[in-house]
Specification:
The protein has 2 helices and 3 strands; from the N terminus they run βαββα. By secondary structure, the protein is an alpha+beta fold.
Length: about 90
Amino acid sequence: MRSTPIWRPLRRVEIAVGAAYGSDPAKVISLLETAASLTAGVAADPKPSAQFAGYGSSDLQFVLRAWTPDLDTWGNVKSDLLAQTLSALN
């Protein structure tokens, strides 16, 4: 007997986030990943992932990547994700 994987289409949502110099990168990453996991429409698998992306002229730069199965309304998911991350960082 062979197991056949179930294919499900997903779309990646990516947002750039800046945090003040002096912020703890590990804490920012944790807050971003938690905020993403709490956002409606974001898939649990693969789980959201945040990385420290670099140094800006006035902030530390991070990128948050999440996946959604909502192919037709991914823009709404991205909007909700932006709002959730803003709330988490304030």
